[in-house]
Amino acid sequence: MSTRDTGSQKAASEPSSPTAPPAKDAPQILPDIIRPYGDTTGDGMVQVSFTLPVPHDKRAEGAALQLAAKMGVAPALLVHAKAMGSGFTFFIVYGSVRHLVDLRDVVVIEREFALLSAKEANAAIKKRLHRKLVVVGACIGNDAHTVGIDAILNIKGFAGEKGLEYYSEIKVVNCGAQVLVPELVARARAEKADAVLVSQVVTQKDRHIHNTTQMSAAFREAYPAGKVPLLIVGGPRFEQGSEERLGVDRIFGKGTTPGEVASYLVHAISQAGSTTKEHP
Description:
The protein is α/β, with parallel strands linked by helices. It contains 8 helices and 10 strands.
C-alpha cells in the first residue's frame, strides 16, 4: 500500500470537523413575543415617571402607587418623589408589567425614497426643473423654537450633514419663528415656493396639530387646486402616518437630517407635475 493510500484511509476514518460557529455579524433571530428587560431576561421591569396634582405627602405617594397598579405595574416600587411647586408632586415608579409585546403586530413605515448625496440631489433638481427649487421654512404660531428648522435649512446643518442652504440647486427662505400663517402663505406666494417646511416643537394642548391643520387649510384656500406647494411639517410629537388627517404631504420626526429632507423633495418633484411651473 502506498503512502498516499494510507493517508487517504486515515483521513476517511477521522470524524468530520464540527460545523463552524455563525459569524459574529450574522443577523440575530429575535423571538416574536417579548417582555421588557430590567434585571433579568423577561422580568418585565419598567420605569415610569409622572406628575400628580397633589402636594407631596404620604397620601400622594399612595396615590402614585395606586396609579401604577392601575397601569399594570405590580408590584410597584416608588423610587423617587419630589414636590413640584405648591400643589404638584413628581414621581418615578419601578416595577414589573404583565403585558407582552408581539413584534409581528408592529407596523413600521418604511422610507419610500432613496437617500441622495448633495451632488445627486442637485443634479436631479436641475434635470427636472431647469431652475432652483424654492423652499420656504418657518416656525408658525407662538412657537419660538428654531433649532429644528435651522438644523434643516441653515448651511451648518445637523448630524454631520450640511443644511439645504448648502445645495446649489435649492433656494432657501428661512422666515424664522412665531410666523403667522397668513404671513407664511403670502411669503410662499411671493417666492413662488415649491415646498413649505414648518417646524412645530410646542405641543401643549395639541397646539402643533391645530397650527398644522390651520396652515394646510390656509394654503389650500389661497392656491388653485393642484398648485399648492409641498407642505412638510416636522417635530418630535407628530404621529407618523397622519399626513392625510393633517392635510400635509409629509411628516418628519425627531432625528431627521437635511439629507433626508432633500432626498424627499427630489422624490416628490419627480412624482408631481405641478412643480414644473415656470419661474422668472
